[in-house]
Give the backbone structure.
Amino acid sequence: MNRPTSSADAAAFWQFSLMVYSRPQVAACCLGLQDEYGFDVNIVLLCLWLAQTRGRTVGRTEIEALRAGVADLNENLVRPIRLARRKARSIIETAPDPQAGAERRELYAALKAIELRGERLIQAALIECLGGGDTDGGTEAQAAARASLETYRKSIGAPDAAAAILAQLTIRALCRAEGQSGHIT
């Protein structure tokens, strides 16, 4: 079996992430995991992508290597830009006049675009960190995602409360890809 190039994998992972992130309540789950429990959204999305496309789980050692592999990009590029973007968003409403408001919205949009470019760099770095490895033998996508995300939760010491959000995220992110309705009560 010919394995796609890292560049092709990175592009496929990015497209998957954009598709999944746009689904109802997925962004809210991801941001809650990031802001409340310290998850890296890109690693969460990688676990979902690997489960969906390869039936592959990610173990604790691999998660630790992934976190270490993108720590510098996260700490020195994406997080500072994210903080600046969030601050820019918060000051739009306090603009003293329409011109200042327009300039602040423009700054916010530019920061958001730069942040997204940084996120894409992180995703490419995650693919590079993965190296080889194909499937775990066809594990069902939701089962593989649940296993990987639970391993991730435990590896960062996130509380059990995060497990419920991870379970909801798995259903919302992967159910449509598996032909399920996605309805959650």
Q: What stands out?
A: The helical segments are 6-21, 26-37, 41-54, 60-92, 98-130, 141-155, 161-174.
